[in-house]
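Example (one chain per record):
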Amino acid sequence: MKRSSFLLFFLLIGGTTVLAQDNSIKNLRGRVLADGKDVTGVVVRNNTSKRATITDFEGNFAMPVRLNDTLVFLAVQFKSRVLPITSSVFNADFVNVSLEEFVNELDEVVVRPFDLSGDLTKDAENLELPQDVSAETLGLPNAQRKIITQNERKLQEASSMRMTAGGSAFGAGGALSLNPIINALTGRTKMLKKRVAIDKKDAQTQRVQQSVADSLFIVVLKVPKDRIDNFMYFCEADPGFEGVLNTNDELKLWQFMIDKSVVYRKNNGLE
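Predicted structure:
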């Protein structure tokens, strides 16, 4: 009787231990690899818990998992990859996940209507496409002229020399406007130049913000959605921001924003 009780106690303890292991959660860390391809923004989804995240600039990710969960890696440019959370994966300190590039190969298509040969290069040369209706295609005057901002227009008016009241510069009926001299002395021209510079900087900042998905701000840079605008102004205030923009190097710009996000989160207590 004592022996049976001991065995029953052992089985209960062993079953409880296994159950505890099965229910334990671990924050699995890893990296997506893809033969030198861009691995930013790959979706990592836990099909069991229905949670998801995306990879950072270097392909790193972290996902809470349990034993026997299933992770799925999804991206337009890669074939989907399924990773079962086996005991070896669950107990690993770090996992590397290799993805294959997705190439959409279409079957051969023969196109005969409209005298098309199927050779895209040849057919593109023979096709007559309607022109877009624009100032350039309509041949309107000043079609190539840039549309200036309100502050640029004010600056032009404040600093340009022009005739007033008709006549010529040397005739009795006309005179040169003194506005440029007055505006320079009063500081209005300098003030307008500063406004134009600010407008230009704000426009650059808006273009950068619009080119980055909100999800990257939130997940990778860890900047809350309601603070994205404020974070971009924080980047804009850095003297090095414009220099990075002028390089037209997206990798340098992204690294700049990653570095600034660390400082921004620390300054605003977002860690």
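Caption: Residues 188-211 form the longest helix (24 residues).
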